[in-house]
Specification:
Number of helices of chain A: 14
Helix content of chain A: 25-40%
Oligomer: homodimer
Largest sheet of chain A: 12 strands, mixed
CATH topology of the largest domain in chain A: Rossmann fold
CATH architecture of the largest domain in chain A: 3-Layer(aba) Sandwich
Structural class of chain A: alpha/beta
Shape of chain A: elongated
Largest interface: A-B, 59 and 59 residues
CATH superfamily of the largest domain in chain A: NAD(P)-binding Rossmann-like Domain
Radius of gyration of chain A: 24 Å
Number of strands of chain A: 18
Number of domains of chain A: 3
């Protein structure tokens, strides 16, 4: 039987994992595919540095993508070079050249997904991306196929392992963000430039991809509200614990009243909720479908082999179809529904809040703050006033009932402007109790 | 476009759910399928009792399966009549008649799966069964496709909602098994005859189906060790809690040294393990794959709509292929590997144990029991001896290190035979710490 030939663009951490799994699991992969499968060629801009634990043998290895894109014998192109523009061009060329494509590139899908899905449809080729969201967790399949009969009501994801590792360490050890970040970098859990991970951008990329699938609607990446974990303090975490909450960086999507809300931010969730138990570098996605009810998927969201596991799941699915003469199934791509959901303006989003203020210890301070909240239609659930933190400053913590984001923004600005409030000390963390 | 026509065999709880979802979600289903879909006929032995919330309208509804099996315009048969022999014959006939089949029948698959998979392969038809294991959780897809590049090392399932509800209630309220069972029956969480659920048979059915897929090997249902939860006492649960454990009914499959072990029994697991948090009627499946590492899937394991969600996931997948002219993908069936795994004899299984004995309070009792354990190569991790329970009887609880099941069986028999041990009081609960 004619072998299925795979071209690998990018031999970084995940690319090397994909090559390793091909060598170590070939027999099982071929049994599942129903045909031989082989790496046909590997391309990377770095062709000299040895990759740990990987021997490419006599496999063609160059820095020239044309060696893959121009080879008509290659059926499936795996794009693992990362970045946006170069990857976009390579994938478009591969599809136009009649190849099926597997990618783990969430940044690319989040910003140019619509173009790529349309191109794959037009070319009658498959574009698969299980590895783009939550690493080894087969969440893309679950949403596309397992939940096919559901309207998704809500989706909550812990989808960035770096942020979750840092928050878990801060929670367990009471340490500062900066210190834990350094440790995470030393252990390889955070990049040298961690901005995308700790500032929520990576989570927002994944939310865009998941929400496009789950809500069958076009989502503009720039419309997603994004806030990261770098401003969370050990004190926030300790206060949250006191009140029975954990702080997690959540990617949230909810639909209701014909509108969709999308946001990434640190979130207080009840300590006994299933998501609160997701620790360290693990990822989890919690979903509520109108037919199936609550579902949660948990596993390793990153790493060489977990991500390679998802890349191979896609290769096997495409290869199995090729082997049985069934190539193009355009419905497998994200479906943009006939009734696109409107994105809810962020000011209209409703949430409960934790409000932290460092105030000069004057008898009037609490009444001033609560007065501002009341004037902005925000009602108070509870107040915690702690002893002096340092000369003349006392932390005031207020938990609110559900309120409008726009109202809270106005209130926060007014509170910041109070002379009794220490400059720049007021901040909020959103609370989700329903999940 | 020619509509995809579905025949529904069985209009019980789940069957009615399948019909309801068809009515309520038709637009989305058709968008995902890429063609119209319609219920063509419904068959049930009871054609008179009204089904709550369901109006079949002018849909052909009879008690004659030939109305579906004999109708060449019907593409997909959904079997939801339950039971084994009649369902087996109907499915075989449907496949022979060129129809694709969707079933939720774990008892049938566990006992006659090999025959049905072979028939589907021979007929070039699809046989799908997402709803047979863990209700609404898309675990079958995850194992078949998401984990395609993995050798599965181990699998732990909480796959019977009735048992998990009962154990959760017993844990939360300290109540007796019999009392909680009655409550569960009153609330519809347990059948009038709960034997299959509480004695582990239903869990073993699901384990057979999952393990066949996950380990790509033939599994004889009768070779699975099965023990239910009916003998668990509030005292066992309280003692487990004292030592940091929860008791769950686990379906366990592990591979190693070329052999597979399969068992269903009440199991003590650490209270901080993800499975320990799975409460009430919820199900979860925890898996370890050699490439992806740990994964867990959580959701509703039963109920009209969650199960219907999985039935429709299968219908949509088959219908989408039919709509695009791609019907038969025989690799989608469980693959029996080229190297079938041997089943490990239960006596060779290794586990740690909780041993409970009600002993006459004599100074010699502990030395006699520990002597028997030692003579059978079982070493002791800890001993708890409580005060008198009733005149002259004292509970002795011993936690052992990992030992052979066969050795523990012999030791238990010898301990039962001690004159200082109250007749019939000695019992064990297995402990899993690794998961």
């Amino acid at each position: 039987m004619k072998p299925i030939r795979v071209g690998l663009l990018g031999l970084g951490t995940v690319g090397a994992g994909v090559a390793k799994v091909c060598a170590s699991h070939r027999e099982e992969l071929e049994e599942k595919i129903g045909a031989p499968v082989e790496l046909a060629a590997v391309v990377d801009k770095d062709t000299t540095t040895p990759r740990e634990g990987l021997d490419l043998g006599s496999l063609p290895f160059s820095d020239d993508p044309a060696k893959i894109l121009g080879d008509p014998s290659i059926d499936i192109v795996v794009e693992l070079i990362g970045g946006v523009e170069a990857a976009r061009e390579l994938i478009l060329k591969a599809l136009e050249g009649g190849k099926h494509v597997v990618t783990a590139n969430k940044a690319l899908l989040a910003t140019h997904g619509a173009e790529l899905y349309a191109k794959a449809r037009a070319c009658g080729r498959m574009l698969a991306f299980e590895a783009a969201v939550a690493g080894g967790i087969p969440i893309i399949r679950a949403v596309k196929e397992g939940l096919a009969a559901n309207r998704v009501n809500s989706l909550y994801g812990i989808v960035n392992g770096t942020s979750n590792y840092i928050l878990t360490k801060m929670t367990d050890e009471g340490s500062e963000f900066g210190q834990v970040l350094k440790e995470a970098q030393a252990r390889g859990y955070a990049e040298a430039d961690p901005t995308f991970d700790v500032e929520g951008v990576d989570s927002a990329h994944k939310l865009q991809v998941l929400a496009t699938l789950a809500f069958r609607t076009a989502v503009k990446f720039d419309d997603i509200y994004v806030e990261g974990v770098s401003k969370i303090t050990p004190q926030d975490i300790a206060l949250a614990r006191e009140m029975g909450f954990r702080i997690k960086l959540l990617a949230i999507a909810k639909s209701g009243d014909g509108a969709l809300e999308l946001r990434v931010h640190p979130t207080m969730i009840p300590e006994d909720s299933p998501m609160a138990a997701v620790s360290g570098v693990f990822n989890a996605v919690f979903m509520n479908g109108d037919v199936v009810g609550d579902l949660m998927f948990y596993g390793r969201g990153a790493g060489q082999l977990p991500t390679a596991s998802s890349v191979w799941a896609d290769i096997v699915e495409i290869a199995r179809r090729l082997a049985s003469g069934q190539a193009a199934v355009p419905q497998d791509l994200p479906i943009l529904g006939n009734k696109p959901l409107q994105l809810k303006p962020f000011a209209e989003v409703r949430s409960a809040y934790y409000l932290y203020v460092l105030a000069k210890d004057q008898p009037s301070v609490l009444s001033r703050i609560t007065g501002i909240l009341g004037a902005n239609d925000i009602s108070i659930a509870s107040v915690i006033q702690k002893g002096h933190q340092r000369s003349g400053a006392v932390p005031v913590v207020i938990m609110t009932h559900v309120a409008r984001e726009g109202d809270m923004g106005k209130a926060l600005q007014a509170i910041q402007g109070l002379p009794v409030v220490e400059s720049g000390s007021a901040r909020i963390i959103r609370i989700e109790e329903s999940e």
